[in-house]
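Why this split exists: single-chain examples teach little about how molecules sit against one another. For that reason, every record in the complexes split bundles all components of an assembly together and asks for one structure covering all of them. Below is a record exactly as it appears in the raw files.
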Amino acid sequence: MRNWLPFIFLLASCSKPVSENCAGSGLYTKASFPIGTAFNLSDAAEHPLLTQKFSTHFNAFTPENALKFSTISPWPGVYDFSEGDSLVALWQDRARIHGHTLIWHQQLPSWFAQYKGDYKELLQAHVRTVIRHYARNIRSWDVVNEALTEQGELRASPWLEQVGEDYIYLAFKAAQEADAKATLFYNEYNLALNPRKLDAALRLCENLRSRGIRLSGIGMQMHIGVSYPSREEIAFAVEKIWRAGFTVHFSELDISLNPLGNKKNFSEADFQAQAAKYREVVEVYQQIPRDHQFGITLWGIGDADSWIPNYFNRVDAPLLFDAHYNPKPAFCAFQNALK
Ligand code: 9MR
């Protein structure tokens, strides 16, 4: 038995995760770029701790659903900006507000499919109306969201169907005409995971630029998992994007603990692995030259508010704070990685 003791101690010390310590001070105060998050007005109203955490740690904000077409347009040509206006009024003094999203194949109004007018005009009017409404408070926009398939082709979006291939160009053109100084983004997921999609996104954005579009940056959504994509894959994608002359926004970061949906709960080791991945993401982001960094935006604050459990019908805990807004190991790793 005595001979086994060192081995047992060694095993115990290897498997026991090392917790990082960190200060409760604001995340954004340690960062050299904006640190953002996303939520809805109802989340803010229901959870006072959410707004408290937001005020302490974040200096950028993306309305999660408030500016989407289905939220703001109950009838053709009719706009109700009340939720977006309330969020803007709440945060504009202390956070940079990023507009999300103008043209997307999801969250279209219920009347969209039966619309009897000209879809090209609808697209242009929509982009113009929303950008102009917020021109004073929102200086950057995800103009087009998720236009590509994993094969790098144009996705079968209702916009593609109704307006044709030029719908992306038309959206960006309308955006820059509506606000000549706004910072315009193309926003997409799986860019680090899928080099084929990354190349297609770069081709798309370079093509838009060659046609006179003032496209500033690419939003890498970064809905990722603890074990994918690798640090190297993230670094490769990031570098390709900034070297092509685009600003990089990690626009919707969360790190799933349960991508396959086969777990019912999570161990301390899972939370440590997640923390390590968050650290990696922050480290890679900080390798981008300053003038190509737009910021890192988390897709929510507390695990209970995340879109993932509802959307995929599985338990998950992908964010920096737990369901009670207590900081997780991921929070400390994120904070300690900032420099
Ligand atoms: O977080 C959003 C969730 O509340 C909505 O139900 C969902 C609808 O598809 O959209 C979520 O946000 C998405 C974002 O707007 C675009 N990228 C993917 C995000 C997660 O689906």
